[in-house]
Structures are given as C-alpha cells and as structure tokens.
Amino acid sequence: MAKTASDILKGLSLKVKNITKDEAKSFDFLLDEIPMRIIRRTLLGKDINNGMLKALSANYILYREGKMSFRTSRYGSVYPIFNTEKISMAVGKTTKRKNKKGEGANTSIEFVKHIVGDKFKPPKLSSDTKPAKSNLTLTGEMLSSIEGKRSGSLFTFFFSNSFSSDKARWAKEGGRPFFGLSETDKKGLTTKISSIFRQILRDNFKG
User: Fold this and answer.
1) What number of other Cβ atoms are within 10 A of residue 176's Cβ?
2) 107 and 186 fall within a common domain
3) In terms of domains, do 110 and 192 share one?
4) Residue-level pLDDT at 173
5) In which band, very low, low, confident or very high, does the pLDDT at 31 lie, cut at 50, 70 and 90?
6) Pairing mode, if any, of strands 154-159 and 94-98?
7) pLDDT the model gives residue 4
8) pLDDT at 60 (0 to 100)
9) Number of structural domains in the chain
10) 128 and 176 share one domain
C-alpha cells in the first residue's frame, strides 16, 4: 500500500525529532567555541555590540599602575591614597547650611587623619592587559571562568563561581556589556552550524 502524504510527513517529523535528540552532540564544539569568542573579543577591548569598551577611570588606571589605593574612613567614606613615602590624608569637609530664615551657618565635620608610611604594591595584572587598557581583565579570572554545558539540545553558558558572575553583572551595569554573542560572532557560528546541519540532513535523508 502506497504511503499517503500524511504518513510521509509523520515519518519526516519523527526523523527531525531523532536528529534533534541524537545529533545534538555534533554541536558540542559550541561549548568551547562560544566562550572562546567572548573571551577573544573582550580581550581586544570590544563589547557585545563590537564597539570599544568604556574607558577606565583615571583613578582606576592609577590603581592598576600601583600609584593609588583606596581606604574607607570610620564613617564609611571611600577615599584615595597615593603611593608616596609618607602622606597625611584628611577626610572631611565644612559645609554651609541655611536655616529657616535663609541665613548661612557653617557646620564642621570632624576630619579623620591617616598616615601612610609604607608603599603599597600594584596589583598583579594579567599578561593580557595593561594598566590603561579597558578589556575587563585585571587578573583574568572572570573571563577564564566562563563555562558551558549541554542538556539534550539545550546549551547553557555561565560563570563557574559567584564572584566572577557578580563582576560580569557589575561590568554590564557600568556600561561594559560583554557576555553574549555579537552580530559578528553570530554570523561566524551560523556558517559553522549550517554546514554541520546540512551534513546531518544528507546523512539522515539520503536515498
């Protein structure tokens, strides 16, 4: 008995389901390819839109050069300290507030003095960056912690530890989005995926 169009469609549908289930491992190269593309683009100083990452602040560059550090006063204020032989830092200010009559009155806030006697060392930068280079790399830990896993035909990418995940979130909130695929990344992957999928179709639907 000849197969009806409905029978043929059911058979094709079953084959497509089996391809999705059985051939997903053919795309396991994505587990390495996608993190590699994110890392490579970011190290070049480009964001997810292929634009240049937001420049580093002047103070942060000084910190990366070992010329500045930061301390917190007893009141919770964060302030910079510079790398010299001896520095006396005064933290505080005198403000001028107006009373109900609109008259000005000076209000003094206590100054907190700190003496810095020893020079501090600069952070140990990754070989993939420089003090003034904006590529989301200080030690390299965050980028190197990107991982991927496959469950069936579902691929998921994440950071292997919560601190790196937090740093990635801070980078995005600070105007430096990077975790994902740029249009260039997508085009490159589409070419590879299409080639593999065509081969799978040829192998499963020949004859």
Assistant:
1) 19
2) no
3) no
4) 95
5) very high
6) unpaired
7) 54
8) 87
9) 2
10) yes
- Taking only the tens place, the pLDDT of each residue in 38-55 is 999 999 999 999 999 999
DSSP assignment of 9-30: HHHHHHHHHHHHHHSGGGGTTH
Residue 8 resides in a domain = no
Query: Is residue 143 located within the same domain as residue 205?
Result: yes
pTM over 0.85: no
Contact assessment for residue 52 and residue 45, using Cβ atoms and an 8 Å cutoff: yes
Q: HSE on the CB side for 90, CA within 13 Å?
A: 6
In a domain, 181, yes or no: yes
Q: Give the span between the Cα atoms of 181 and 175, in whole angstroms.
A: 16
Rounded CA separation 207/203 (Å): 9
Residues 178-202 have a mean pLDDT of 87
Query: Are 109 and 130 in the same domain?
Result: no
Which tens digit of pLDDT belongs to each residue from 85-135? 344 444 444 445 555 555 555 444 333 334 344 456 778 999 999 999 999
The domain in which residue 73 lies consists of 68-121
Cα radius of gyration rounded to whole Å, the chain = 28
Beta bridge partners of 95: 107
Which residue, of 56, 90, 121, is where some domain finishes? 121
pLDDT band at residue 164, thresholds of 50, 70 and 90?
very high
C-alpha to C-alpha distances, 154 to 46, 140, 157, nearest whole angstrom: 27, 28, 10
Structure tokens at 114: 């700190």
Rounded to whole angstroms, the Cα distance separating 118 from 190 reads 55
